[in-house]
Design a protein that fits this description.
The complex is a heterotrimer of chains A (about 220), B (about 300) and C (about 500). Chain A starts with 15 loop residues before the first helix and ends in an 8-residue tail after the last helix. Among the domains of chain A are: about 55 residues, no CATH class; about 90 residues. By secondary structure, chain A is an all-alpha fold. Chain A is built from seven helices and no strands. Chain B has 14 helices and eleven strands. Chain B has a three-stranded antiparallel sheet with strand order 1-3-2. The radius of gyration of chain B is 30 Å and the shape is flat. In chain C, helix 15 crosses helix 19. Chain C is globular, with a radius of gyration of 28 Å. Classes of the chains: A mainly alpha (about 220), B alpha+beta (about 300), C mainly alpha (about 500). Chain C: Component of the RNA polymerase III (Pol III) complex consisting of 17 subunits.
Chain lengths: ~220, ~300, ~500
């Protein structure tokens, strides 16, 4: 609709001379319409007012409480403290808040979870691996060696697991996480270097993708 | 043979029924209206009228029908050439629905230029007129000069010189709705029960027509049918529901929508013209949305 | 499943469970169903975090699992609809609070937080939490009674139990019929004294969302009829719905026939409160049938007449109403007139639209094309039989494919919901530092108050937030509140759409 009005006045058009008398020459009456249309054209209708009453207020409060509860609980999975080489003042606080929750495990009905998600999963998996060894034939020798190595490690892990409740030391927890991680990556047939590389890539990805803004 | 005066009276009678039935009358119709006439006399009278050029004879579905010739057609016959007569007859046949120039050309077998000349000539004699068709603005149809165009051509009360009067329709729409709304609440908790309440909240088209006529906002006479057309727009606006009384008359009742405005239209995105261009990145994003800014401030 | 749904689900997961869970959820949404190792690969997250995220998703019923082909690992699958329900939690609580009082509210709140929980632990936890709260005055016996009545009414149900096949490490969850438990207050009180870990009660409970949704459905229907006729008619529908629960599957498209006699008895029972309804019972029934948007229909003459409730028809009518509102706001009321016209005529030609809608030709065409462009209507070309001249002229019939339009509206809702969540996240991020500061000040002040420190000291701490900072905070809070309220309202729209989709 908007653009169409311009032709209207054509009923009383002026001759070239008259235009010139008015100071309008051929060249300079063009620049005006060159501006692009606005990115956000004016809205023809406004959204209707939000329904907001006492019940809305109640629901908003309840909702915020619920989210707050979740954020405090282990259900909210935090980023592992990583350094990108730049030291920041805030790092110290970030680490503190992260480590405060590190020890807690989400309270679940474990029987109803796949065993690979259960907290003691590391031990179970190693056992399973031994069983599998009997049947696999191709990489049998390699796996045996590997599993021996893992067994040693997992021995440590088990000890740590048992003491989990007692231990509050953040460093130790960190180690545990690392070990587990390494263990799994070996399982998946990737070596440590690969894992390390993956992590880097992941970090880049986050920066590219605005969906996942950094957590401050 | 009876006297001349009685003959004139009979002629008058036949012409009268022919006038009442512009589509034509059959021999039976004549017999029914003037039973005192014998069939012989009837034939004689008809023949006389045909001779005088007062009526036309048509054959329809195996029986003859007689149709009154209009005054103008008599004039046209006088002093017109053959082409004009042919064209005139075609236009006359079309009645108040009119005939399209292309159809005249096809059926008259006249060349375009010649046809145009003939039409011009007829128009200048004020025997025919060109009428713009409302539902196809470029299409012109021809009809006899003295005819009132059919509703399908003129659009009825809603058209002024083939221009749709939307403002007029809007005003009527609002007035009719107001009338319905005044009585709508009668259904709620009516002490005499909901059925009485419902009846009180209903309005027939005739009632609405009377209300509109009394308001005097229309200088055109609005028929009940016109009012029904308007009332139906209110139904399509979702502001009224219609029902039919046992006697077949349509009744209307103002209603509210079943739901208040849904959440979707309470947020800018619900009315946003750019919603389909909105992405997570780029120029149009929820973070930088101007509509969202306005809404939140 | 739609891209827009994926976007909004991802945004919600981010808001509720953080970035990692969001990534895992997004990955699962994109790929359907996959094992841990694959998630680790595509997300590049450490395995431990993927495991943690999966625990969260499973715990809150946001994902399911099934043994993969090797029977050792599990394949995980996101349940996007349940993620959307997170937004609805506040409504469940409101429903409980207004219908059953604060004990029920606390029970449901705790159960939603725990996702699954045994009755004993649930009750003990709540009782412990509110032990010293004298305002609420929560007693164990009241809690127990509420728990039992909620279980009886079906708002809570027993969680599916695991079934483990020999040699398989992946349990299968089997739904069980809920048995209303016998709870002993004395046992519960005894359990209060024990440590939580010592309590052995392995019957687990969860919230039955569906039961709440039925309540919402009934409420919408009753409100609609009340708007159309009056509250007596609304009351009558409520009785009909109650009777429907006794004889029919609750979500059945149409209830089994209800005899008028039973309905009359119901209305007689409330004659004291609704004398008008009782007095004009037959009239109300007739008006409800004829003017109640088709929610109720007479379906037989046996036993003095039989009536049925038609939730499918209700969903249909309410969907139409929602769409009409939507068209009105997006394209104007004249477009809505055309939309309704096309809907009432089923199939209609362009010329006829203009004739019936009584709009100027040009405007009418423009609006019709706009409706077409936004997928509110569709067009069906019909080839006329070739005429003698061989000129086959096609005519174009406009019509509404309601199912498709409903999908269009759902997409629009998802987009809007995503944008609202996204914007809120953006606002939060933009003012993260300030919000954080405010939070810390509040915690400190709260602590000081508890310790009974003098007011001047507290004021000092509070004043660390400068007036300009406070001004910004007020405006941010207002914005966040509005966005949050918008989420709730959008969810209501989605509810109606989902209800409509229930009946294919």
């Amino acid at each position: 609709m908007a653009g169409r009005g311009r032709g209207r006045g054509s009923g009383l058009s002026l001759t070239q001379e008259q235009y010139q008398a008015l100071g309008i020459t051929r060249g300079d009456n063009t620049p005006a319409p060159l501006a692009p249309p606005p990115l956000f054209p004016k809205l023809e209708t406004k959204p209707l007012p939000l329904t907001c009453d006492a019940t809305t207020d109640y629901m908003l409060i309840v909702k915020d409480q619920f989210i707050e509860y979740l954020h405090e609980s282990p259900a909210y999975v935090k980023l592992q403290a990583r350094t990108d080489g730049i030291e920041r003042y805030s790092d110290k606080y970030k680490l503190l808040s992260l480590n405060a929750k590190q020890g807690k495990v989400l309270d679940c009905v474990w029987n109803r979870m796949p065993s690979e998600l259960r907290p003691q999963t590391a031990r179970v998996r190693v056992v399973r691996k031994r069983k599998l060894n009997d049947t696999t034939d191709i990489s049998k020798r390699l796996e045996t060696l590997e599993s021996k190595e893992l067994q040693e490690e997992s021995g440590e892990t088990t000890v740590v697991n048992e003491n989990e409740d007692v231990k509050k030391d953040a460093m130790e927890e960190e180690e545990l996480e690392d070990e587990e991680e390494q263990d799994y990556e070996v399982d998946d047939g990737t070596d440590y270097a690969n894992n390390y590389f993956d992590n880097g890539e992941d970090y880049d990805e986050e920066d590219d993708n605005l969906d996942d803004g950094p957590v401050y | 043979m009876s006297s001349n005066s009685s003959e004139d009276a009979i002629t008058e009678k036949i012409l009268n029924i022919a006038k009442k039935n512009p589509k034509g009358i059959t021999d039976k119709d004549v017999a029914a209206t003037i039973p005192e006439l014998s069939s012989e006399q009837r034939v004689m009278m008809i023949n006389k009228l045909l001779q005088q050029g007062l009526i036309d004879l048509f054959k329809q579905g195996g029986s003859f029908i007689y149709r009154l010739k209009t005054q103008s057609s008599k004039q046209a016959v006088k002093g017109a050439d053959n082409e004009e007569k042919v064209v005139f007859n075609l236009i006359e046949e079309a009645g108040n629905k009119g005939i399209w120039i292309r159809d005249i050309r096809v059926r008259s077998n006249l060349a375009n230029t010649q046809l145009n000349k003939v039409l011009k000539s007829l128009e200048s004699k004020k025997l025919i007129k060109a009428v713009k068709c409302v539902n196809a603005s470029k299409k012109k149809v021809y009809m006899l000069y003295n005819l009132e165009p059919d509703r399908s051509i003129s659009g009825g009360a809603w058209y002024q010189d083939q221009d749709f009067e939307s403002e007029f329709v809007d005003i009527l729409n609002r007035q009719c709705l107001r009338f319905l709304q005044q009585r709508a609440d009668n259904i709620k908790n009516n002490p005499r029960g909901p059925i009485v309440g419902r009846t009180q909240s209903y309005a027939t088209a005739a009632e609405v027509q009377k209300y509109i006529t009394d308001l005097g906002i229309s200088n055109v006479k609005l028929e009940v049918e016109d009012v029904i057309t308007i009332l139906n727009t209110i139904v399509y606006d979702g502001k009224a529901e219609s029902s039919v009384y046992p006697d077949g008359s349509k009744v209307y009742r103002a209603i509210d929508p079943l739901l208040p405005a849904p959440g979707l239209v309470q947020v800018p995105c619900g009315v946003c013209p750019l919603i389909h261009k909105c992405c997570s990145t780029g120029l149009i994003t929820p973070q930088d949305c101007i509509y969202m800014n306005e809404w939140l401030d | 499943m739609s891209h827009q749904l994926g976007r909004v689900v991802s945004e919600i997961l981010h808001r509720y469970f953080g970035e990692i869970v969001q990534q895992v959820g997004k990955d699962l949404f994109t790929y359907g169903s996959k094992p841990i190792s694959m998630i680790v690969k595509t997300t590049g997250l450490p395995r431990a975090q993927v495991v943690e995220s999966l625990r969260t998703l499973l715990k809150f019923h946001l994902a399911t699992f099934e043994p993969s082909s090797n029977e050792v690992n599990a394949d995980y699958k996101l349940i996007p609809d349940n993620v959307l329900l997170l937004i609805r939690y506040p409504r469940y609580l409101l429903q409980m609070k207004s219908k059953y009082g604060s004990e029920a509210e606390l029970l449901i709140e705790e159960l939603l937080q725990q996702a699954t929980c045994s009755a004993t632990i649930l009750l003990v936890t709540i009782a412990k939490k509110y032990k010293d709260d004298e305002v609420k005055n929560i007693t164990m016996s009241k809690l127990k009674d509420t728990f039992i009545s909620l279980a009886t009414a079906g708002y809570i149900q027993q969680a599916p139990v695991e079934e483990v096949k020999e040699g398989c490490e992946i349990p299968t969850l089997v739904p069980v019929a809920t048995i209303v438990p016998e709870l002993d207050t004395r046992h519960l009180l005894h359990a209060m004294t024990m440590d939580i870990s010592e309590i052995t009660d392995n019957v687990y409970w969860e919230v039955n969302y569906d039961r709440f949704h039925l309540d919402f459905r009934d409420e919408i229907m009753i409100k609609a009829v009340t708007r159309r006729i009056d509250e007596n008619a609304g009351e009558m529908l409520q009785h009909l719905l109650r009777l429907m629960y006794l004889t029919s599957a609750p979500w059945a498209p149409e209830s089994n026939p209800t005899p008028v006699l039973e309905l009359r008895e119901c209305c007689q029972r409330v004659a004291a409160e609704k004398p008008h309804l009782n007095q004009h019972f037959d009239q109300y029934l007739k008006v409800l049938e004829e003017n109640g948007a088709g929610f109720v229909r007479r379906c037989g003459e046996a036993g003095g007449g039989q009536y049925m409730v038609r939730p499918r028809q209700a969903a249909h009518a309410l969907l139409l109403c929602t769409l009409e509102h939507c068209v009105t706001e997006r394209l104007g009321s004249n477009a809505a007139r055309i939309f309704r016209l096309i809907n009432s005529k089923k199939y209609i030609e362009e010329d006829d639209i203009q004739k019936h809608a009584m709009l100027p030709n040009k405007e009418c065409k423009e609006l019709t094309y706009k409706l077409l462009e936004e997928h509110f209507i569709s067009v069906q070309p019909m080839r006329k039989a070739a005429s003698a001249g061989g000129l086959a002229k096609a005519i174009y019939l406009y019509h509404i494919n309601l199912h498709e339009v409903a999908h269009t509206a759902a997409e629009l809702c998802y987009r809007a919901l995503h944008n609202v969540c996204r914007r809120a996240a953006h606002e939060r991020r933009r003012h993260a530092r300030l919000l954080d500061k405010q939070r810390r000040v509040r915690t400190i002040v709260h602590g000081m108050r508890l310790r009974g420190e003098p007011q001047p000291n507290i004021d000092d701490v509070e004043e660390t937030l400068t007036p300009p900072e406070l001004a910004v905070l007020t405006s941010v809070e207002k914005r966040l509140k509005q966005l949050s309220a918008a989420e709730l309202e959008l969810d209501r729209t989605l509810f109606i759409l989902k209800w409509y989709f229930m009946y294919p």
